[in-house]
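User: I've been trying to design a sequence by hand for this structure and keep getting stuck. Would you show me what you'd pick, starting by listing the structure so we're on the same page?

Assistant: Good idea, let's start from the same input. This is the structure you sent:
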């Protein structure tokens, strides 16, 4: 996609938490949007206190503040697609759902974030029900990893053979599409399953040998949202997202003394001198 100088790019909105370490959350989403040729906007839900060693805490914004951020940008600027990440609490989820229901934000990608890779919670325990009941039914696409599949449906995925049952249980919650991410399976290729009730598409990628994958889930979901904002259909937006995250994992790097982030730099190597 080449954008003529002065032309307005497509727009996408992320509704998510801030990662003070800059590797995940809103920070990853906005970098991904830029790298995918989309103007990024944000409605921040919570501010996490974190570095490469983990999340030591988070502060939620008042639900009305989250709703007002969404309304402000959508009513004026508009968006071609939206993405949710860390929604933190049931009251924030209810405010987000009510606000989105009253606006046209285009396709909605829901990354059902529950915990960090270190296992630190990013969701109040009583918010799982609201995620399942008020957010997921609004989604064009949900992008759970295997831990999130288990949390949402009780289905435990041990291998590719369990992924169809997981996808069916997730589709029963009401999203139009589900992407079951098999990246955490122990061996072999990384296999994801994309389904909408009629189509079943397997997406395979060679497994990358790096521990520095902080922000990978956010980056994939944001790249998919950027593809949707650019007018791609769901399967093509997911293929774009997979290409983007594979390159970002190849470009990941150590940072601090813990887990480093996936790298968005591969897309912007021409730095000004
Ligand atoms: N912090 C925020 C604000 C996030 O949204 C997420 C993931 O969605 C994380 C941290 C955790 O990222 P990871 O699981 O890649 O470490």
């Amino acid at each position: 996609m080449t954008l003529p100088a002065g032309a307005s790019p497509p727009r996408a909105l992320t509704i998510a938490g801030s990662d003070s370490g800059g590797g995940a959350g809103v920070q990853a989403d906005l970098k991904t949007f830029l790298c995918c040729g989309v103007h990024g906007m944000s409605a921040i839900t919570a501010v996490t206190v974190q570095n490469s060693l983990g999340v030591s805490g988070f502060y939620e914004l008042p639900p009305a503040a989250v709703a007002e951020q969404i309304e402000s940008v959508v009513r004026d600027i508009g968006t071609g697609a939206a993405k949710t990440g860390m929604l933190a609490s049931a009251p924030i989820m209810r405010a987000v759902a009510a606000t989105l229901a009253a606006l046209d934000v285009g396709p909605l990608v829901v990354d059902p974030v529950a915990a960090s890779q270190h296992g630190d919670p990013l969701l109040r325990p009583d918010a799982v029900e609201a995620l399942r009941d008020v957010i997921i039914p609004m989604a064009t696409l949900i992008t759970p990893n295997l831990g999130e599949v288990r949390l949402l449906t009780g289905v435990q995925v041990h291998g590719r053979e369990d992924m169809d049952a997981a996808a069916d249980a997730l589709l029963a919650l009401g999203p139009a599409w589900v992407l079951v991410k098999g990246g955490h399976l122990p061996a072999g290729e990384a296999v994801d399953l994309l389904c909408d009730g009629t189509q079943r598409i397997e997406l395979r990628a060679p497994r990358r040998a790096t521990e520095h994958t902080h922000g990978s889930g956010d980056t994939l979901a944001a790249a998919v949202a950027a593809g949707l904002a650019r007018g791609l259909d769901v399967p093509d937006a997911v293929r774009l997202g997979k290409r983007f995250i594979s390159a970002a994992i190849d470009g990941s790097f150590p940072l601090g003394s813990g887990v480093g982030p996936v790298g968005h730099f591969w897309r912007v190597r021409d730095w000004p001198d």
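That's my pick for every position. To get oriented when you compare it with your attempt: The longest strand covers residues 39-51. The chain is about 35% helix and 20% strand.
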